[in-house]
Amino acid sequence: MGCAGTKAVQKNGDSQKPRPQVFAIMRNGHEVIRGCSRDLKELVDLGSVEEFQKYWNQSKAWMSYHAKMEDGVEGKGKGMFALLDEKFDGIATKNKLQDAHHELHDAEANLLTAMGSGEVERLRVAFEQFNKINLAHLEEEEKVMMPCIQKMAKAGDPLVAYLQNEIVSTAWDETGFGEEFITFGLKTLEKHHEGKPRARVWVHAIQAIASDAQWKTWLPFVKAGLSEKLFTEIDDLIKLSG
Prior knowledge:
Blueprint: E1 9-12, E2 15-18, H1 24-46, H2 49-71, H3 80-87, H4 91-94, H5 99-117, H6 120-154, H7 159-167, H8 177-191, H9 198-209, H10 212-225, H11 228-238
Antiparallel strand pairs: 1-2
């Protein structure tokens, strides 16, 4: 199950309609972060501290939602790491996935200090350190996460319910979820598609876990995150508009 793109299809009359791969919310979320890292590097290379800080704030807001979905929020859901631990004999803890977030927090603090200094070279060094840790963490998560998701899918586990009750539930009721998570994520995935249907796979997953009321609320943010051309293409294929 490679969620960055998808080959999963179902028969729909004479056509073939992709099936939603709901854990793409998490896996293709990594492609949002990788896209952000490219954009941030470009701003560092341009020497624009002010623009870097502005885009960093947007990126950080998105990553905060993603981190909650991984770490869990008391009263809202256990998060992905705890779910994997529960299902696979402590696999996330054994691989120190959550510990890496602490390392990232330290690197982020150094990056914030560098931004505050206004010095381009200092910012470059701090960002390179943060980015190296962050990208390595994504790869490590994927090595652990993806085989587990494949096993759960093959076993017929209720993946939609896991996301609704334990993972996305940690963040989806926050005020900025539509604009800061959905719209920003889609804009980033469309920009950094690398020839894969990343935006379509991600939004299809979000649609699949949403209640009718949630989807009605989120659809304007979906439209805001996609070019008119791509929205129309996706809508024709998986009926975003209902």
